[in-house]
Amino acid sequence: VRLVESGGGLVQPGGSLRLSCAASGFTFSNYAMSWFRQAPGKGRERVARISSTGTITNYADSVKGRFTISRDNAKNTVYLQMNSLKPDDTAVYFCCALIGASTSWGQGTQVTVSS
Question: What is the mean pLDDT of the chain?
Answer without folding.
Answer: 97
